[in-house]
Structures are given as structure tokens and as C-alpha cells.
């Protein structure tokens, strides 16, 4: 998100603070909803004979789509409740800290990239409708986060090996 929005040196100068915080909260709500909805779709497939009339993947994607919409609505209400009556500087401070947090920005980038790919793939499958697009985007965003964590762990071990000075053997002493 920090690539597209201005990030001043001081929090009190942060423009678009409400937009930044709201976008972040809705994004995380969609991630949570996709994960829970996908689990629900998989469990429903396993427990219901009616749900087994369609493939497992379709059930998981549909469940994720409904989870994305439901969780996004819930976190929007929660954000409104939490930030109701707060001064502008509090919005600016929270959004400034989000833009300042480099790992959070990487997670946002990977998650948004995964959501784009997943949304396109979910929209290609006929018969899934809006649940296919939103579910695919939600699952893609979760896959993006998991991919970033795996990439970061692998990259972190390589950097630790270089710092330890034992790059030939690949063993890091702690």
C-alpha cells in the first residue's frame, strides 16, 4: 500500500488516513472470512450429501466467497464502532504506522497479488457467480500471505547463514 499512497515523515501530516485504515481492515477481514469460509465449505462438503453434488473445490470456493462478504461486513462495523468519535490524529497515527511497517506492506502486496490471481481464476469457472470471484480472490489472498511467510522464512535462513559466516555448510549456529 505504501507504493501508491503518500507517506510523510510525521503522522500528523498523513493524508487519506481514513481510507488507508479502512482499506487495511477490510483487507484483513476478507482474509479471515476467506479462511473460515473455505474451512466451512470443506466441512459442509464432508458432512452433507447435498453439498457433494458439486465438486469439493466449488464448495470450498463458494464458502470462501460468502465468508469474505460476511467478514468484511463485520469488520466494517467493528472499525466504525472502534474509531467512532476518535480525533483525526488517531486515524493519521494508525494509518501512518501501517505505512511505516515494511513487513506489513510486503504482506499487503503479496496478498493483493494473490487476490487478483484468485479472483480471475474464480471468475473463469462457470456456475460459481459472485461467490466464485470473491471466494477465489479471498483464497488467493490467503495463499499470498502464506507464500510471503514461506518466502520470508527461506530468505531469513539464507541471511542468517551469511551473517554467521558459514555459508558453505549452510549451518547457522545460535
UniProtKB/TrEMBL annotation:
It comes from the Eukaryota. Keywords: Membrane, Transmembrane, Transmembrane helix. The chain crosses the membrane at residues 60-81, 128-151. This is Uncharacterized protein. InterPro entries: DUF1757. The keyword Membrane applies.
Amino acid at each position: 500500500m505504501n507504493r501508491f499512497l503518500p507517506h510523510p515523515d510525521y503522522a500528523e501530516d498523513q493524508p487519506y488516513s481514513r481510507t488507508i485504515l479502512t482499506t487495511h481492515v477490510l483487507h484483513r477481514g476478507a482474509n479471515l472470512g476467506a479462511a473460515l469460509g473455505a474451512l466451512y465449505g470443506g466441512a459442509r462438503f464432508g458432512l452433507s450429501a447435498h453439498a457433494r453434488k458439486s465438486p469439493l473445490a466449488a464448495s470450498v470456493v463458494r464458502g470462501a466467497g460468502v465468508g469474505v462478504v460476511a467478514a468484511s461486513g463485520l469488520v466494517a462495523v467493528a472499525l466504525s464502532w472502534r474509531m467512532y468519535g476518535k480525533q483525526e490524529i488517531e486515524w493519521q497515527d494508525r494509518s501512518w504506522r501501517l505505512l511505516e511497517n515494511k513487513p506489513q506492506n510486503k504482506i499487503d502486496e503479496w496478498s493483493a497479488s494473490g487476490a487478483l490471481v484468485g479472483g480471475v481464476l474464480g471468475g473463469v469457472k462457470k456456475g460459481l457467480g459472485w461467490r466464485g470471484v470473491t471466494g477465489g480472490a479471498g483464497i488467493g489472498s490467503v495463499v499470498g500471505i502464506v507464500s510471503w511467510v514461506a518466502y520470508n522464512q527461506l530468505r531469513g535462513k539464507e541471511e542468517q547463514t551469511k551473517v554467521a559466516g558459514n555459508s558453505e555448510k549452510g549451518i547457522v549456529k545460535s
